[in-house]
Amino acid sequence: MIAKPGAKAGDPESPGPEPAGSEVEPAEIERAQIGFDQLFEILKNKRRRRVLRYLLEGEEEVTLDELAEAIAARETGKDVKQITSQERKRVYVGLYQCHLPKMDDYGAVSYNKPRGRIATAEHTDLFERYLSADVEAEDSDWTRYHSMLSLAAAAVLVVPVVLGAIGSNVTLQVVTALLVGALVGVSAFRYFA
């Protein structure tokens, strides 16, 4: 864990944990002796961001097994009860060998490797403001709503094309068919991707 040399618990220069949901200023990051490079080194990996988000959402201390299951469920989009042992093991090994030791070194989490316990640490709150900006498409209800609305609109546009086949305006039919095809293609890609 990176700490200020000679800092004591009651020292006013010693960084303390920030209240949940507070705005963290750049000066506070500098006083915490964790640089922007280290901050973004942790944040550049999606799995590490998920660990931080999970801990900040209220699970202040968890076991490695619980964390691996929760992260595997988020990565696969399944319920915790539905993940396979292989999916859990893949996440467990990555957390155990790579992510948690690095996060512990930077003070992002407190990782007790022998006991397999992970908890929030002195610098965990510094990451919170950057996590709120990380909006993932797979977690977005708006993306699913938009895709379903687009598919419904495409279905409504198909009716005039079919009925227009009886009419004589070929240009209108071709343009409408191209628009419907593009709308269906984009919506299907966004929904299933």
From TrEMBL:
<feature type="region of interest" description="Disordered">
    <location>
        <begin position="1"/>
        <end position="26"/>
    </location>
</feature>
<protein>
    <recommendedName>
        <fullName>DUF7344 domain-containing protein</fullName>
    </recommendedName>
</protein>
<feature type="transmembrane region" description="Helical">
    <location>
        <begin position="172"/>
        <end position="192"/>
    </location>
</feature>
<feature type="transmembrane region" description="Helical">
    <location>
        <begin position="148"/>
        <end position="166"/>
    </location>
</feature>
<dbReference type="Pfam" id="PF24035">
    <property type="entry name" value="DUF7344"/>
</dbReference>
<keyword id="KW-0472">Membrane</keyword>
<keyword id="KW-0812">Transmembrane</keyword>
<feature type="domain" description="DUF7344">
    <location>
        <begin position="40"/>
        <end position="118"/>
    </location>
</feature>
<keyword id="KW-1133">Transmembrane helix</keyword>
<dbReference type="InterPro" id="IPR036388">
    <property type="entry name" value="WH-like_DNA-bd_sf"/>
</dbReference>
<dbReference type="InterPro" id="IPR055768">
    <property type="entry name" value="DUF7344"/>
</dbReference>
